[in-house]
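Residues and backbone
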Amino acid sequence: MKITFYAHASFRLEADGLAVVTDPYTPARSGFAPIDEPADLVIMSSATDDFHSDPSHIQGAPRVVNALELPPGGAEVLGLTIRPFPAYESLTFDFQKAAGRDPDANALYHFAIGGLRVLHMGDIGNPVAPAHLAALAGQVDILLALTGEHATIALDDLDQAIAAIRPRVIIPMHYHSPRGVLPIEPVERFTARFPAAAVTQVGGPSLELTPETLPAAAPHVFVLKQSR
């Protein structure tokens, strides 16, 4: 599978003749450039967040799925079984409090492509529910992890989720970019929590992984550059 990091929480995953884009942002609101590439499937953690739910700049005619609208046990879409794990943004997020708005619902979502099991953390801003951790334990090869704090899960809570889920690979997302407008934490705040040998700076936006090339020592962190 080829994984390309667009920006924020948006990735492109390509395998099995399928191109999947996750959580596309709104360019005008986020500060990131349009994706402007075709895809077969777009999965969004909600349909209400400008930073996670705008497929308008994805080319072609992709099937668009809002994870929050899927049944609890998941559903098959274009051959992928997508399972949602409902969550909320941070209940104490300072930016939200200043704006006087309630935290939005969103969902983590799990699916398998190219023989690899992927969990995208959506926009969760609180500890992952114990029932969700139990369902996901040992079921994730690649964790697309929220690492910027503030609106999203605290790093201490993320550590606990990683320990419970036991992913083979962690790819940070939703961290600071000079192009982005959100004052969130840099990825180094997260990677500093791991031994140096457990972190690879890829040096670009793309990475290829197969079941056979997953790191033997887990979890291993691969840091991709935001390309938009």
